[in-house]
Every structure is written in C-alpha cells, then in structure tokens.
Design goal:
single chain; about 30% strand
C-alpha cells in the first residue's frame, strides 16, 4: 500500500513534469535527503561544522534523540557545504550561492510533512546579502510555473527579523492558477550579519494563511539573535 508522502509525490508527478518537479522539491524541502547525515550524528564527516557548535541549531538537540515511530518519521543532520538551500523555488540541481564557510541542515520527515532548519555562514556580510538576493531572484524567475493540469506559484513578502527577512510561499494551483491544490511550502529566511537562516514547513497546504508562518518566524527571530553569539558573524 502506498501511503504518506509517497502518495503526494505520485499525485504531483502525474500533474506535470515541470510544476510537479518544483512542487515535489517543495515537499522534500529543497534538500536531497540522500546527502544528509544519519539521525543522531553530525553529518557525513561526523565532525562539527567549522564555526557552528554542536546543538547550536534550535531543533538540533531534538534531532539527535530517537524518534517514537522509526517506520514513519526520521530526523537527519548534515554539515555538507555543497547542498542546496533548504528552500529552492526553481528546483535547482546545484546551489547558486557562493562563499560559504559553514552550513548545517536539520530536517524532519513524516508522511506528507517536512520541516527544515538551516544555518549558512558566509565569508562576509556582502556574500550573505548576495545569497539572499539570489534566492529572491529565484522567486521572481519561478513566480509562475505552468504545466499540464497545474500551476505552481511562488512569491516573497518582507517580514521583520534580523537585518533582513522574507517569508516565501510556494503553492500549487489548478490549471487556471486559481484554486489551490494539495501541496505547498512555507518558509521564512532571515539574514543577520554574514549568516542566513532558513525555517521551512512543507506538506499538504492549501489556502495560504498568515498563521502558516507563525512557527517559522518565531524560530527565525530567535536564531537571528542567537547567531550573533558566534564570533565575527554580526
């Protein structure tokens, strides 16, 4: 029997190649899970990412604990520098940003639900600014992706957090781009100094509501303050 996220992915794939790929990427949070570390570890190398202490991310301590239902849920932790940003509006195969010096990604997966937390530290404040600008460029380029039977719409709106922050919505719609279909992503991205943090939820979203972003915005504000405890980041 096919259940959970597998059902959603099948529905999206049937909806159309381009929009389906973008929306399926949203449900996976934009990160290739095969490239992440094992639950309870520190990523591929087993070491702490330079500049990011162990358990620094907000959901990292929980991610290192055993899950209640191993067959249905899992946490992964990765320090891999070469992965995509957790929100990836155009479904890029490779990251477009440059000058990363440290990165940690914490992901939780359950049937038809995905949450992601990611902290990226760049070589300079200018590099962090460019990374956020580049991400917003993706939002503009892929604001409306149409395929057979579906339209995937993406947009960004400013929110108050850190030096600069936005909330990014990715939502599937019917062929006219009017009626929401199942599947979407809600992310808050914040830059503070030379760090960018991303908080994302993805799953069976439909109509877009401001409350969809409550948890992500709270976490983004908390991390924007916390990251300044790292030497030279702010």
């Amino acid at each position: 029997m096919t259940t959970g996220m597998a059902r959603t992915t099948i529905r999206l794939a049937a909806a159309g190649a381009v929009a389906g790929t973008v929306l399926a990427t949203a449900l996976a949070g934009g990160t290739a899970l095969a490239e992440t570390g094992e639950p309870g570890g520190t990523g591929e190398t087993g070491r702490t990412a330079a500049g990011i202490p162990r358990n620094f991310l907000l959901h990292e301590p929980q991610a290192r604990k055993p899950v209640r239902y191993p067959g249905e849920e899992k946490w992964t932790i990765s320090d891999r520098l070469g992965g995509n940003l957790e929100t990836n509006p155009c479904g890029l195969r490779r990251p477009a940003d440059r000058d990363r010096v440290a990165m940690r990604t914490v992901v939780y997966q359950a049937p038809e639900y995905h949450s992601g937390e990611q902290l990226v530290i760049y070589r300079s404040t200018a590099a962090a600014r460019r990374a956020l600008t580049g991400l917003l460029g993706q939002v503009d380029r892929c604001a409306r992706v149409k395929s057979e039977g579906t339209v995937t719409r993406t947009w960004a709106e400013p929110v108050r957090a850190g030096d600069r922050a936005v909330r990014i919505t990715l939502q599937g719609y019917d062929a006219r781009g009017v009626r929401p279909i199942i599947g979407g992503q809600r992310a808050v991205v914040v830059r503070e100094g030379r760090a960018v943090a991303i908080y994302l939820l993805a799953g069976e979203y439909g109509k877009v509501r401001g409350s969809d972003f409550t948890r992500q915005l709270k976490d983004a504000r908390k991390m924007a303050a916390k990251v300044c405890s790292l030497r030279g980041v702010c």
